[in-house]
Amino acid sequence: MAQKASGISTKFYDFKVQTRSVTKLCHSKDIVTINGMFPGPVIYAEEGDGIIVKVTNESPFNITIHWHGVRQTLSCWFDGPSYITQCPIQSGQTFTYKFTFVKQKGTFFWHAHVSWLRATVYGALIVYPKTGVPYPFKYPFQEHIIILGEYWLKDVVQLDRATIASGGSPPPADAFTINGHPGPNYNCSNNDVYKIDAIQGKTYLWRLIHAGLNAENFFAIANHKLTIVEVDAEYTKPFITDRVMLGPGQTMNVLVTADQPIGRYSMAMGPYMSAKGVKFQNISSIAYFEYSGAVLNSLSLTPKLPSFNDNLAVKTVMDGLKSLNLVNLPKETDTILFVTVGLNVQKCHSKTPKQNCQGLNNGVMAASMNNISFVKPKISVLEAYYKKINGSFTEDFPEVPLEFYDFVNGAPNNIPNNTESLNGTRTIVLEYGTRVQLILQDTGTVSTENHPIHLHGYSFYVVGYGSGNYDPQTANFNLVDPPYMNTIGVPVGGWAAVRFVADNPGVWFMHCHLDIHQSWGLGTAIIVKNGKGDLQTLPHPPTDLPRC
């Protein structure tokens, strides 16, 4: 439903959180869905539209929905991460999300933000330019949404609990999926395959969304080039490539022209695993791009994906990403945050170590920012902050690491004796309007790894990145046309530098979008204070805000 109100068109959606049985990979199981759909329903809007989504929880699990990439200008209460901006919607309860697309358009997605429920609770959120505003490229013949995911045979909530209780690492997904379909490389999945019908000579816009849980992935199509035109819902200069890499939380729009001989061509989604010694799913998910006139059930041509640890292939794509237009970037910054991201192993303190200390060297796996593992409080940080409730969080997250060393090559690694992190709900507090430079530095404790770091409530300019330890003397910055993103893959054994202006009051979660790392504590919350007047002040909480 849509209606015009005060010049803004408002779209209404009804989300019912429901469990339903699905059969995949020769097994049936109950999954949590929205309105019984997997992937979930698509939300369509136009730039400037208001959105109202009534979420009714008919499942037995706690739930929240996060609107990934939506900047939530003055609507932090509706951002959705559990225990950061709200308590979960409990079974039998409802909560209505209300927000507006302020100066935003492009490919977004929504997903659950409680436990690992987003394994199946996700869907696309497509925001078109205002009526009459063209794309900055030739209008495509058709658009298609392509959501990359991961599928487990086990119940994901139990899997999350069991993994944390074990102290060890999670099992890899049983399959990668494209729009919920594993494709013919997996058991019982010859017909469980996604297909796009193509007409020779036409150009298509594919909206790629990575909704996977714990894996980063390469994506390519046989014999066709991909032209990147948008990343994280911001236009880029067109960049032509054979393949792309997306981490969880990233979106990318690519143009594909059906310029090959008539036939059936495979798209493939395979693993990118930059960490050492981690088990991963190495079977690719396949979907078809089938030209009209192709022989029925003809053999498909398969693309060659990079090897699973091809860091150069990832860098090559990142190097090609530039904002479409010159950017208005703050040349000066008011504060510089230096944040290490990485893994830890805690010492075993369990009476039953065989059950609970299955991490490296019989320790307990953890992850941290500046060596502090984030602990989610019992009520939401935003509520505690807004209502001045003491005891839920502290405002003392260190703005630089507690100690400096060779983060990449000389990191402590006498597991678990010197690889422990501190636990706490420690937050960063910023005055309204602060111009921030944030350096994210990967560390070599346990293993270096590419970490997709997502910041809620903001996009940021990725002004630089590189391998090794960040050195301000030698770091190369692009202050002319850096890409504007909400999720940045911090390079394996490297660093990334981003800039943003803290002009959206509220409490904003910053975390690794690999869910296991988030569960282990790789995150923090940034509190942005109110400015002056109504347009710089977070409104009152909604009356139906869920209680913990």
Automatic annotation (TrEMBL):
<dbReference type="InterPro" id="IPR001117">
    <property type="entry name" value="Cu-oxidase_2nd"/>
</dbReference>
<feature type="domain" description="Plastocyanin-like">
    <location>
        <begin position="17"/>
        <end position="130"/>
    </location>
</feature>
<dbReference type="Pfam" id="PF07732">
    <property type="entry name" value="Cu-oxidase_3"/>
</dbReference>
<dbReference type="InterPro" id="IPR002355">
    <property type="entry name" value="Cu_oxidase_Cu_BS"/>
</dbReference>
<keyword id="KW-0560">Oxidoreductase</keyword>
<dbReference type="Pfam" id="PF00394">
    <property type="entry name" value="Cu-oxidase"/>
</dbReference>
<feature type="domain" description="Plastocyanin-like">
    <location>
        <begin position="143"/>
        <end position="294"/>
    </location>
</feature>
<keyword id="KW-0325">Glycoprotein</keyword>
<dbReference type="GO" id="GO:0048046">
    <property type="term" value="C:apoplast"/>
</dbReference>
<dbReference type="InterPro" id="IPR008972">
    <property type="entry name" value="Cupredoxin"/>
</dbReference>
<keyword id="KW-0479">Metal-binding</keyword>
<keyword id="KW-0964">Secreted</keyword>
<dbReference type="GO" id="GO:0005507">
    <property type="term" value="F:copper ion binding"/>
</dbReference>
<dbReference type="InterPro" id="IPR011706">
    <property type="entry name" value="Cu-oxidase_C"/>
</dbReference>
<protein>
    <recommendedName>
        <fullName>Laccase</fullName>
        <ecNumber>1.10.3.2</ecNumber>
    </recommendedName>
</protein>
<comment type="similarity">
    <text>Belongs to the multicopper oxidase family.</text>
</comment>
<dbReference type="InterPro" id="IPR034288">
    <property type="entry name" value="CuRO_1_LCC"/>
</dbReference>
<dbReference type="GO" id="GO:0052716">
    <property type="term" value="F:hydroquinone:oxygen oxidoreductase activity"/>
</dbReference>
<dbReference type="InterPro" id="IPR011707">
    <property type="entry name" value="Cu-oxidase-like_N"/>
</dbReference>
<comment type="function">
    <text>Lignin degradation and detoxification of lignin-derived products.</text>
</comment>
<keyword id="KW-0186">Copper</keyword>
<dbReference type="InterPro" id="IPR017761">
    <property type="entry name" value="Laccase"/>
</dbReference>
<dbReference type="InterPro" id="IPR034285">
    <property type="entry name" value="CuRO_2_LCC"/>
</dbReference>
<keyword id="KW-0052">Apoplast</keyword>
<keyword id="KW-0439">Lignin degradation</keyword>
<dbReference type="Pfam" id="PF07731">
    <property type="entry name" value="Cu-oxidase_2"/>
</dbReference>
<dbReference type="GO" id="GO:0046274">
    <property type="term" value="P:lignin catabolic process"/>
</dbReference>
<dbReference type="InterPro" id="IPR034289">
    <property type="entry name" value="CuRO_3_LCC"/>
</dbReference>
<dbReference type="InterPro" id="IPR033138">
    <property type="entry name" value="Cu_oxidase_CS"/>
</dbReference>
<feature type="domain" description="Plastocyanin-like">
    <location>
        <begin position="413"/>
        <end position="531"/>
    </location>
</feature>
<dbReference type="InterPro" id="IPR045087">
    <property type="entry name" value="Cu-oxidase_fam"/>
</dbReference>
<keyword id="KW-0677">Repeat</keyword>
